[in-house]
């Protein structure tokens, strides 16, 4: 059976409501990803039931990178939402398991925040690294009795 791919535009405030409704209908959360656009970070969120995908597109303005969490309806979203915080600098409210910007180990803070999809615009030049650049620190985050640590990148030898 072939299904057409339909992507529904969604206001970010409705994300937890839609996730809860679809979960009650037996859909499972599949994925969430961000794509840098000129004026927004475009989020794609997908749910599945019986090989039928429901896809949603959310435009999050770069001037207000806040979204509500779906983890109240589907805990599986916690890793995707933490990635959005780490890669784009998004702020996810009411996130059930929040690593506070330390979920992924990256060379720089929010490495995708200043990028733009080459199909729609030019890549923005990131600000030069300097004293104002945030430094990563080691943090221990308890998770169900297990200590998970993020470790700063080793100093590279010349």
Features:
158 residues, alpha/beta, Beta Polymerase, domain 2, four-stranded mixed beta sheet, two-stranded parallel sheet, 8 strands, globular
Describe it for me?
The protein is α/β, with parallel strands linked by helices. It has one domain (7-116, 134-150): NADH:ubiquinone oxidoreductase Nqo5 subunit (Beta Polymerase, domain 2, 2-Layer Sandwich), CATH 3.30.460. Helix content is 13%, strand content 30%. The protein is built from 2 helices and 8 strands. The strands form 3 sheets. Strands 1-4-3-2 form a 4-stranded mixed β-sheet. Strands 5-6 form a two-stranded parallel sheet. The protein has a two-stranded antiparallel sheet with strand order 7-8. The longest helix is centred in the middle third of the chain and has 11 residues, at 78-88. The model is unreliable at 138-143 and 145-151 (pLDDT under 50).
Helical residue percent?
Answer: 10-25%
Q: Structural class from helices and strands?
A: alpha/beta
Q: Give the neighbour order of strands across the main sheet.
A: 1-4-3-2
Q: Point out poorly predicted stretches.
A: 138-143, 145-151
N- and C-termini, Cα separation: 58 Å
CATH class membership: Alpha Beta
Q: Please, how many domains?
A: 1
Categorize the overall geometry: globular
Mean pLDDT reading:
82
Tell me the radius of gyration: 17 Å
CATH architecture type: 2-Layer Sandwich
What's the main sheet like? 4 strands, mixed
* CATH topology-level name: Beta Polymerase, domain 2
- Write the element-wise H/E pattern from the N-terminal end onward: EHEEEEHEEE
Strand runs, count: 8
Strand content: 25-35%
CATH superfamily: NADH:ubiquinone oxidoreductase Nqo5 subunit
Specify the number of helices: 2
């Amino acid at each position: 059976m072939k299904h057409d791919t339909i992507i529904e535009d969604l206001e970010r405030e409705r994300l937890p409501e839609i996730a809860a409704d679809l979960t009650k209908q037996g859909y499972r959360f599949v994925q969430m990803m961000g794509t840098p656009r000129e004026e927004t970070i475009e989020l794609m969120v997908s749910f599945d039931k019986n090989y039928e995908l429901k896809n949603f597109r959310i435009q999050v303005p770069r001037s207000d990178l806040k979204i509500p969490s779906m983890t109240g309806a589907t805990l599986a979203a916690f890793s995707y939402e933490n990635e959005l915080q780490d890669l784009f600098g998004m702020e996810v409210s009411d996130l059930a398991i929040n690593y506070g910007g330390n979920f992924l180990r990256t060379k720089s803070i929010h490495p995708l925040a200043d990028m733009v999809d080459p199909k729609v615009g030019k890549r923005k030049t990131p600000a030069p690294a300097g004293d104002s650049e945030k430094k990563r620190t080691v943090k221990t985050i308890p998770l169900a009795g297990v200590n998970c640590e993020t470790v700063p990148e080793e100093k590279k030898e010349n």
